[in-house]
Specification:
Layout lengths: L1 E12 L2 E12 L70 E4 L5 E4 H14 L5 E5 L5 E5 L12 E9 L4 E7 L3 H14 L4
Antiparallel strand pairs: 1-2, 3-8, 4-7, 5-8, 6-7
Helix pairs in contact: 1-2
């Protein structure tokens, strides 16, 4: 079946602008698909860049042992946050089935100590099916000066990253089809590597 299409053409004449209507028949588009003259290259020969995440809405997990901003600004020593209004934020298990938390006193834990505790749990549960979540991140810079230095002369140079952990603050969470005794043993080994109880 053919139809007609009207086209509006305008041009300028010495007496002023004029308008001309043209009418010509066109055919309906066919239903078959034509093969492209320049096909796309094979994806196997041209893989995507390593940081390309297809069909994913989650962001790339940042490094929890060092912030992205760097240590250009000096952080104050500060104190861990203590909830006084009855808030339980950060003190309960959210994603996993078991959790390891600070029990005795608030303190500052370095990124190296957190990494040792993380690797200890993974080493104990090697061969099991589990997922380990981290609830804290080392985003506080620690600055030190040399021994037997006089007072003054600035805050010192950057030494390492740390995090402030308050009382009852959850540090690690574990999820998986594991026996309770195995989880207790893994958390016991990690707790021995971390300061406090």
């Amino acid at each position: 079946m053919k139809s007609r299409i009207r086209c509006l053409v305008g041009h300028t004449t010495p007496l002023g602008p004029s308008v001309l209507f043209l009418s010509f028949p066109i055919s309906q588009p066919s239903l078959h698909l034509a093969r492209p003259t320049n096909p796309q290259p094979d994806l196997a020969l041209h893989p995507f860049p390593p940081k390309t995440r297809l069909f994913s809405t989650s962001s790339i997990r940042p490094n929890w042992l060092a912030p992205k901003r760097g240590h250009s600004d000096s952080n104050n020593k500060g104190k861990p946050h203590v909830a006084t209004g009855g808030s339980t934020r950060g003190t309960t298990v959210v994603w996993g089935d078991w959790g390891l938390r600070m029990r005795d006193h608030d303190r500052r834990i370095s990124a190296k100590q957190l990494q040792i505790g993380f690797e200890t749990i993974r080493r104990r549960l090697r061969g099991e099916r589990f997922r380990l979540y981290t609830r804290v991140c080392a985003n506080i810079g620690v600055y030190t000066t040399g021994n037997e230095m006089r007072m003054g002369k600035g805050k010192g140079s950057f030494d390492h990253w740390a995090t402030r952990v308050g009382v009852n603050r959850m540090i690690f969470e574990l999820k998986g089809d594991l026996h309770e005794e195995i989880v207790r043993d893994a958390f016991r080994l990690a707790g021995n590597k971390l300061p406090g109880e």
